[in-house]
Amino acid sequence: MRNILVAVLFSLLLYGCNESVNPNDPVNSYKPIWPMPGYNARNTSSPYSLSAVINPVSNGIPDWSFTFPSGNLSDGSQFCVDSRGFIYFLHQINPSGALYKFSPDGNVVWKRDSLNQWNFAAISLSRDESQIYFVAFKQGTMDRLYCYDSTGKYMWYKDSALVTKPAIGKDGNVYSFHMNGLTAYSKDGNILWTNTSVKGNYGHNYIALDMEDNIYTVNNPDKYVKVSKQGIVKWEYSAGNNFSGIVIDGFGNIYFNSYADDKLFCLNNSGQLKWTKQSVYAYFSPVITSGNRILVSQGGYVISYDTSGSELWRCQPFTNLGNAEGLLLDDADNAYYIGDGGSSGIYAGCISSGGVKKWEVNSGIYSFTLPPPVLLPQGKILISPKRAFKIQAVN
Fold it and tell me: Which of 134, 169, 273, 275 qualifies as a cystine partner to 123, CB 3.0-4.6 A?
């Protein structure tokens, strides 16, 4: 009897040792799988990337800045930040752009020349942060999906890429758009499948993933689709043309903005419409707090809704500007955003989780169109103009 008991205990011990639980994996709960599903504050595009506490930006005071070489600038670059606060950025300057890696305090770690993009230069991180993925071109080439490692070493590329931001799944697969359709790649760059019936569109049509690695994205020109991780379309929803992003709450409800008619849409997980809100500033996606509150820029306010569409609070983001742009959340659900003051400068601001404005600041950078900002774990927000001659940190 004793020998049987020992054998049972030993087998249980082996089972426990063999069963792997990654603390960074989403758990089954009613919380969103990211602080901002689809667009976490570091903009990694992977819900399974290494975790990092995003500390509040407390002061609203300009910190370090970095000025790029002058020249003929293109537009649309976005930041991507790893769990330690290192920053990736594709600087778009004609004729030869460059991929940069910065330290959290703004020093150049490395620079790789001759990589460029005309619009929407977005970067994504692998699950372990050892590789980065982005769409760019070199002089004389078409757009390619590139993979570099975190030391700046070239790994691989795939031709005929559509300009979009790749998403990275639980198993490390990379989801992006080949010219022929939605495509899954292995982390080594091998094509796993392509669904030619799902055509990408504009770069802001990010790809979102749920806990089962189902894919939510745009099917050009006017449909949102849910696609299994094997590439099979599960449903389509037609909502008119031109969408901005997609985010998923902890109950599986789906939210996106349409800038064809300036609406916030809410669908259930079966792709059926639940409710809409009018007069949304639709060029940036909504965000979702850890408690499943939806924040959106609407009618000159930042407004919080619950999952039924009932308004919880509203707050005016700026004293003398209009709409907030590029909403982000820290780990305490404070909301951050920027505002386009044109010749008077890019502003940044913060609203508490309860809807009280905490601060606003003029970054001193001048611009008339803006890419989204990003948060660093060190409690900083990074800002750049669309034609990025400069990066400004605010602490």
Answer: 134
What residue type is assigned to position 111 of the chain? K
CB atoms within 10 A of CB 51: 11
Compute the Cα dihedral for 44, 50, 55, 56 and give only its sign.
positive
pLDDT tens per residue across span 15-57:
333 323 344 555 557 888 766 654 589 999 988 888 899 999 9
Element (H, E) at 246: strand 243-248
pLDDT for the residue 1? 46
Q: Measured in Å, how far apart are the chain's first and last C-alpha atoms?
A: 65
Query: Which among 201, 239, 196, 234 has a CA at the least distance from the CA of 215?
Result: 234
Which run of H or E residues covers position 224?
A: strand 223-227
Asked if 160 contacts 142 with a C-beta cutoff of 8 angstroms, the reply is yes
CA–CA separation, 264 vs 282, rounded Å? 8
Are residues 57 and 379 in contact, defined by beta-carbon separation less than 8 angstroms?
yes
* Higher-pLDDT residue of 372, 337: 337
pLDDT score at 22 = 43
Beta strand 390-394 with 380-383 is antiparallel
Strand ranges of the sheet holding 108-113, from the earlier edge strand across to the other edge: 80-81, 87-91, 98-102, 108-113
Domains of the chain: 29-394 (2.140.10.10)
| Beta partners for residue 277, in sequence order | 264
Count the Cβ atoms, other than its own, within 10 Å of residue 261: 16
Nearest of 327, 318, 326, 323 to residue 358 by alpha carbon = 318
Per-residue HEC secondary structure of 2-17 comes to: HHHHHHHHHHHHHHHH
Q: What is the pTM of this model?
A: 0.90
225 within 8 A of 219, measured Cβ to Cβ? yes
Of the candidate ranges 32-41, 93-102, 382-391, the one whose mean pLDDT is the lowest: 32-41
How many whole angstroms separate alpha carbon 386 and alpha carbon 240? 27
Q: Residues 350-353: contacts with CB within 8 Å, 24+ apart?
A: 350/56, 350/57, 350/60, 351/302, 351/315, 351/317, 353/289
Instruction: Break the chain down into helix, strand, coil percent, rounded to 5.
Output: 5, 40, 55
How sure is the predictor about 153, in pLDDT bands with cuts at 50, 70 and 90?
A: very high
C-alpha 384/C-alpha 212 separation (Å) is 35
Residue 364: what residue type? G
How many angstroms separate the CA atoms of 217 and 36, rounded?
16
Q: CA 286: distance to chain centroid?
A: 11
